[in-house]
């Protein structure tokens, strides 16, 4: 997992260069179709951000010279559809530079794999991906939409559809739509440019989002570029690989494979017993612990 985290740092630094080169409650207006509510999570000065980022992870201390603005962080609750097609309220973080007087581009950042609800962007917990990456990009002058995904934040009572293309794409797109409504409501200066980015599971979510925007919402948004890092894009090829290759022995990796399989079994209505996928004693362990089974 340290390798993945280090790779994320490198991707983030590269993205900074690429993109740079290229508690108050607010009631939504009646015309909003997606935005349900917004609540101020926090407001941070530039100096506070430097301290917060350095304390969260020393590796990010080198990013401090890039920071330009203080930021405001809001939790956005919005309407979207769950995997069963029924409406559900999801959430995410909306982060923007507090004192910027010129227009800004919007970046939708799709987070990587998280294993606890408190890591979701809308909580903006110290040392979380959203706290680090979101603070950086917002302080550079960008408006950041950071969806929690279904299963976290406002929707944490339902299972997260891990690596499920359709629901990730719709939840992320509807977050952008709600963010647009919030931006208009709060009179934040957006120049209509949209960028999307994500790493690992966030890379797959970003690719899924790009596909949905191109196919269904190209007239809604001026999508300028996307950065999809280290995602498992070809699920069929990847499944063939892991079923014909000896395990790495890393429990965390095996749990991600389990999570994907169990998610697809549930969403696509296969509902097969674990013994149809795994041999005992692993089948019994997976039946009991699901994706948290410790298999090496």
Describe this structure as you would to a colleague.
Helix content is about 40%, strand content about 20%. The two termini are about 15 Å apart. The longest helix is centred in the middle third of the chain and has 22 residues. It is α/β, with parallel strands linked by helices and about 300 residues long.
Computed over alpha carbons, the radius of gyration is 19 Å
Strand order of the largest sheet: 1-2-3-4-6-5-7-8
CATH fold type of the largest domain: Rossmann fold
**pLDDT averaged over residues:** 91
Structural class designation:
alpha/beta
Oligomerization category of the chains in this entry: single chain
Strand element count:
8
Brief descriptors of the model:
single chain; 296 residues; alpha/beta; Rossmann fold; 8-stranded mixed sheet; 8 strands; 22% strand; globular
Please write out the topology.
Elements: H1 2-21, E1 25-26, E2 35-44, H2 46-56, E3 71-81, E4 87-97, E5 104-110, H3 129-139, E6 143-147, H4 165-186, E7 190-199, H5 201-216, E8 222-229, H6 235-244, H7 251-267, H8 282-289
Parallel strand pairs: 5-6, 5-7, 7-8
Antiparallel strand pairs: 1-2, 2-3, 3-4, 4-6
Helix pairs in contact: 2-3, 4-5
Please provide a brief summary of the model:
This protein is α/β, with parallel strands linked by helices. It has 2 domains: 2-229, Rossmann fold, CATH 3.40.50.1820; 235-292, no CATH class. It is 39% helix and 22% strand.
